[in-house]
Amino acid sequence: MGRWFTGCLSVLAILVVAKAYTGWHQARTDAPDLIVEAASLIAQGRGAHDLGPGRVEQVLATQDPNFFRHNGVDLKTRGPATDGTVTQTLARPVSIASMVPGVGKVSRLTYTLALDERLPKTAQLALFLDRVDMGHAPDGTWIIGFFKASEVAFDRSPAELTDDEFRSLVAAMGGGRAISPAAAPTPSRVAYLGVLRD
C-alpha cells in the first residue's frame, strides 16, 4: 500500500510539473504573436486609450480593479466578463486545451504568470477588449469585442458614446445583459453598475 501511494504521488508530481512547464512554455511561445496582434489593434484605434478619457478605469473597476498592480493573478478578482483577471481571461483557451481536472489549472496559472511577464499591460487590455464576450446583437448573432459591440449597438466608437451608453456596454460585458442604456440591470449587475454611477 505504501509503495502504491508513493508511486501515485510521484506520478501526480510529474504531471503537475509537466503541466506547469507546458503553460509557461506556451505563453513564451505565444507572446511575440500576441504583442504583434495587440500592436495592430492599438494602431487601428482599438486600444484601451481609445475608449475615451477615464473610461478604461470604468471597465477595470468592474472587471479587474487591481489590473495594474498584480502579476496576472488576483484571487479577489472575479469580474462578470472575466474568469479571474483580465490576464487569466486571455489564458482561457489554455485551460480548455488542457482539460485534466484540477491539474489542468496548473497550465493556466503558469501561462498567466508568464504572459503577464511578457505582455505589456496595454497589450493585454487591447487583446481583452477585442476578445471579450458582449452578448447577442439584435439579429441574434453573438458579439465578441467591446469596439464591435459599440459599433453594432450604437453605430459609433466607444469614445463617441454618452456616459449612459458606455455604461450599458460595460454592464453587458460577459454577455449577461442586453446592450441598452434604458435596460434595467439584472440583480447580478447592480453592484457593478453602482461602481460606475456618478
Q: Brief overview, please?
A:
With 198 residues, the chain is mainly α. It is built from 9 helices and 2 strands. Residues 56-185 form the Glycosyl transferase family domain.
What's the SSE blueprint?
Elements lengths: L1 H42 L11 H9 L22 H5 L1 H6 L6 H15 L2 H11 L1 E4 L5 E3 L1 H9 L8 H10 L14 H10 L2
Antiparallel strand pairs: 1-2
Helix pairs in contact: 1-5, 1-6, 7-8
Protein name: Transglycosylase
InterPro entries: Glyco_trans_51, Lysozyme-like_dom_sf, PBP_transglycosylase
Organism: Thalassobacter stenotrophicus DSM 16310
3D architecture notes:
Helix content is 59%, strand content 4%. With 198 residues, it is mainly alpha-helical. The chain has a domain at 22-131. The chain has a two-stranded antiparallel ribbon. A hairpin with a 5-residue loop joins strand 1 and strand 2. The radius of gyration is 19 Å and the shape is globular. The N and C termini lie far apart (64 Å).
What is the multimeric organization of the chains shown? single chain
Largest beta sheet: strand ordering: 1-2
Question: What portion of the residues fall into strands of 2 or more residues?
Answer: under 5%
Largest sheet: 2 strands, antiparallel
Give the SSE string.
HHHHHHEEHHH
The structural class is mainly alpha
Query: How much helix, percentage-wise, in residues?
Result: 55-70%
Total count of helical runs of at least 4 residues: 9
Distance between the termini: 64 Å
